[in-house]
Design a protein that fits this description.
The chain is α/β, with parallel strands linked by helices. Helix content is about 25%, strand content about 20%. The two termini are about 40 Å apart.
């Protein structure tokens, strides 16, 4: 990227810096804590000057939807951050909506002192050690792709199941819409020739801001391809003309609460740069520290930080689309945060004939709300591998972006609707909308354009 586009991107990054989660150094520490703050009284920012911390696109999105700019939009108070830093902790990330900072520190005495600061409401350990995990929960097959078909190529079946071609044929292909993809990495997206047609606005790694996001996990590569691929007769995604931000929040080497802090910072970044939608094919219920594991009664949309943040996004005018999870055949069975959040679209998986994928997680939420919301193809889904070859993949991780891309195109049809109104329309577009349940939710998404 160079020339005017690079200058615009750098200016945008500079604008949203106050609200970001930036790691100051690569920490050798083995303990990380989330520090909740009481207020923003010492802020140097003003609600009357939102252009200091929100992009013009983010401000316009709020104006268009009648969303007020409020105190949750203000960055975390730098005075408080400095005081925490002076106690001896390294600040890793900041979350303005939930008003917290995440720090790295091995000295529990330092954390106790931080907990006694007058502006600190809570401290919680969210990471410990360097435990290794067994990789991603979704599977990518190395089998050869099936014969390419028609205009959509390998993606023809997953498009047809939700009748997405109707939107595209009517001229709605994601133009002007911005989608943030929050994932584990986007291995080789920058070097795969078939993906060069995807309009990428920028990237950021919230796990390690100094790393190369294109050298990390390939999960995000596959997820992005479901929406952004734009190579006719080979593979065309559900929003081939949308623009994308690629954001990394998942640390594949461990499973700790801190990844939700990274995710919180990523979605706030997405808001600040003006994203319209967020796809998150990540979910959490079990951790390396089993004392942090969620219980079924915790699936109320408020217990997990990631769920509170996801719900808040709709209040800011964004639509969050997330995977339901792949525990339907396991003892947990249920959706996992952020899939329990209110005002998000939680997507389960079916096969190409509309039959439930046995792994697709089920609802309802602990407080009785219908989940998942809708279903899309998540068995033998066509995705792009990091080697530049199209593969078939299984998982709600891939049904989610299929829906996200279609929702972006749908929003083009109804540009004056709010995020929450779009979410309601999507639910009503499920083929079981009249009789929703805790397995299929409102059913397979069927977006049909009137002839």
């Amino acid at each position: 990227m160079d020339g005017p586009m690079k200058r615009i991107l750098l200016a945008t990054l500079a604008l949203v810096l106050p609200s970001l989660a930036w790691a100051e150094t690569t920490s050798p520490d083995t303990l990380k804590y989330r520090v909740g703050l009481t207020d923003k009284e010492a802020t140097t920012y003003s609600l009357r000057q939102p252009e200091r911390y929100l992009s013009a696109k983010a401000i316009e999105r709020r104006r268009r939807q009648g969303v007020s700019i409020d105190s949750t939009d203000l960055p975390v108070c730098e005075k408080y951050v400095d005081a925490i830093r002076q106690e001896g902790a390294r600040v890793l990330v900041r979350g303005k909506w939930d008003n917290f900072v995440t720090v790295s520190c091995n000295d529990t005495a330092v954390i106790r002192r931080i907990g006694q600061l007058p502006f600190v409401r809570s401290t919680e350990r969210v990471w410990k050690g360097h435990e290794k995990r067994a990789g991603k929960r979704d599977s990518l097959s190395t089998a050869s792709p099936k014969r390419l078909t028609a205009f959509y190529g390998a993606a023809a079946r997953q498009i047809a199941l939700s009748e997405g071609e109707r939107l595209h044929q009517a001229g709605f292909r994601g133009q002007g819409m911005t989608i943030a993809v929050v994932d584990a990495g986007f291995h080789n997206v920058d070097s795969i020739a078939a993906m060069h047609g995807i309009r990428i606005l920028g990237t950021h790694d919230f796990v390690d801001p100094r790393s190369d996001i294109f050298a990390e996990n390939n999960h995000g590569t596959a997820v992005l391809s479901c929406m952004g691929m734009n190579l006719p007769h080979v593979m065309v995604g559900t929003a081939p003309e949308a623009s994308y931000w690629l954001l990394r929040s998942e640390d594949e080497n461990s499973e700790n609460l801190v990844e939700q802090d990274y995710w919180a910072a990523a979605i706030e970044f997405a808001d600040s740069v003006g994203a319209d939608l967020v796809n998150s094919s990540l979910s959490y219920y079990a951790f390396d520290d089993p004392t942090k594991d969620y219980r079924l009664r915790d699936l109320d949309g408020r217990h997990a930080l990631i769920s509170r943040q996801a719900a808040k996004a709709a209040d800011k005018g964004m639509v969050v689309v997330c995977s339901a999870g792949n525990t339907g055949a396991r003892s947990w069975k249920k959706i996992s945060p952020p899939g329990d959040a209110d005002n998000v679209l939680t997507v389960g998986a079916v096969d190409g004939q509309g039959v439930l994928a046995p792994f697709s997680s089920v609802g309802n939420t602990a407080d009785g709300r219908i989940k998942p919301d809708v279903m899309a193809m998540g068995i033998d889904t066509a995705v792009m591998g990091s080697d530049g070859n199209i593969r078939q993949a299984n998982g709600t991780s891939f049904s989610s972006p299929i829906v996200c891309g279609l929702v972006a195109c749908l929003w083009q049809v109804f540009p004056k609707l709010t995020a929450k109104e779009i979410i309601r329309i999507v639910r009503q577009s499920g083929d079981r909308a009249d009789f929703p349940d805790n397995i299929y939710g409102y059913g397979i998404l069927k977006i049909v354009m009137s002839d």
